[in-house]
Specification:
The complex is a heterodimer of chains A (about 120) and B (about 120). Chain A has no helices and 11 strands. Chain A is mainly β. In chain A, the strands form 2 sheets. In chain A, strands 2, 4, 5, 6, 9, 10 and 11 form a 7-stranded mixed sheet that branches. Chain A has a 4-stranded antiparallel sheet with strand order 1-3-8-7, with no helix packed on it. Chain A is globular, with a radius of gyration of 14 Å. Chain B is mainly β. In chain B, the strands form 3 sheets. In chain B, strands 2, 5, 6, 10, 11 and 12 form a 6-stranded mixed sheet that branches. The chains are: A mainly beta (about 120), B mainly beta (about 120). The interface of A and B includes residues 44, 101 and 113 of A.
Chain lengths: ~120, ~120
């Protein structure tokens, strides 16, 4: 009954350091995504994936890389951390993909518990 | 222009009263979905309710209902008989058929239920 698991829960980095935020889901969801949440900004989409081997950019992709080698895992990489990347990061997955053809897919996202990242 | 607008940064409501949280959206797509999520102080994102653009009836989930007015591009969340545990941030979100995938979120409303 794990759902979406994110690690770590908290992380402090120095400017220029690299790290990977891990995300795993055990619901066999095709769709996975990363969001960041900043005060007063709501959640903003960083990157997403509609299946293994397929990724695409969201609203705020700069400074982040992703890959999707398996259905279960969708790690988010910060290659050179900057103070502007201080935020709370959420991974989310969905059991359906919105086809855009007019289908009424229920696109409920299942969220992980979040990672609080501070870059000094 | 913002795609999701929540005009109430914060609200105070007496326990047991009904609450309406406002959400307006902007899209040129005919097919889209609207969502409400709750984020308590613990930080997790909890799905509350979903409304598809082609759904003719307003969505309901227990004490939550979505007042969907398509012509006005409005998707207000109504919480009946509010409880102290309803105190949280509430986010309205939209998924469109075209453009980048994923949900577009509003900036949220901080709801505080007073005893």
């Amino acid at each position: 009954n794990a759902g979406v698991t994110q690690t770590p829960k908290f992380q402090v980095l120095k400017t220029g350091q690299s790290m990977t935020l891990q995300c795993a889901q055990d619901m066999n969801h095709e769709y996975m995504s990363w969001y960041r949440q900043d005060p007063g900004m709501g959640l903003r989409l960083i990157h997403y994936s509609v299946g293994a081997g397929i990724t695409d950019q969201g609203e705020v992709p700069n400074g982040y890389n992703v890959s999707r080698s398996t259905t279960e895992d969708f790690p988010l990489r910060l290659l050179s951390a900057a103070p502007s990347q201080t935020s709370v990061y959420f991974c989310a997955s969905s059991y359906s993909f919105y086809s855009g053809t007019g289908s009424k897919a229920n696109e409920k996202l299942f969220f992980g518990s979040g990672t609080q990242l501070s870059v000094l | 222009a913002q795609k999701i607008t929540q005009t109430q940064p914060g609200m105070f409501v007496q326990e047991k009263e009904a609450v309406t949280l406002d959400c307006t959206y902007d899209t040129s797509d005919q097919s889209y979905g609207l969502f409400w999520y709750k984020q308590p102080s613990s930080g997790e994102m909890i799905f509350l309710i979903y409304q598809g653009s082609y759904d003719e009836q307003n969505a309901t989930e227990g004490r939550y209902s979505l007042n969907f007015q398509k012509a006005r591009k409005s998707a207000n969340l109504v919480i009946s008989a509010s409880q102290l545990g309803d105190s949280a941030m509430y986010f309205c979100a939209m998924r469109e058929a075209g453009g980048a995938d994923g949900l577009t979120f509003g900036k949220g409303t901080h709801l505080i239920i007073q005893p």
